[in-house]
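Task 17 of the worksheet. Students: predict the tertiary structure of the chain below and write it out as structure tokens. Keep your answer in the requested format; marks are given for formatting as well as content.
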Amino acid sequence: PCWMDPEYDLWYRLLSCGIRLPASTGSDWFVCSSNRVYVDVGSSFSYETWLAGLRAGRTFVTNGPIVDLTIEGQRPSNQILAVGDRVSTVSATCSWQSSQPVDRVEIIRDGEVAAIVENPNQDLSGQWTGKIDVTETGWVAARSWGQRRTSYGHPLWAHTSPIYLRAAPNRAQRKAAAAFFVEQIDAGRAWLTTRARFDNSGQRERMLQLFGEGRGIYERWARG
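Model answer:
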């Protein structure tokens, strides 16, 4: 088994395209992963309410730490926290706890770090409250990092689903993120055409059709 720090770039770009994709995860291989997704099901716990909460974006993912984020009293979900175009700052609270101390907690705004909360005393829990500049911001989330290791030898991490502040993403950010996916899809189509193996040509054509349909969506967003 090997491990790298979590890579969120693809997810952040999808969010910046305006796709409301809740955070979820799981164990890829049971002997080397403790990744989990936790869902806020309210007062009624059942498989149905768990799925409903997952679809609604009331989640956080972690291999140990618990991270909670609220903005103007609202927790992560697909529901838009309508702050208005004239609102430049919002009140945010982030709390965390863990059986091992995390080194820092970060507030993420449209894929960029908006605030860093260090944990120099290596406390097992903490809370940060502050103001975040959200001019034209589409979404905000929180994540934590730690050099301590899980029983699988992985660095500690956790990430909340986003809190959405506006119905439409920032146009410039959507264009840049969509252009990235156009390039990636083109590279994938080239591989499908020249190197991929299929049982018959119909399977290849079907895959190329699907890639083309996806490309068309991102291309429209890239044009603005």
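Marker's comment: The helical segments are 9-16, 47-55, 171-194, 201-223. The chain has a mean pLDDT of 93.
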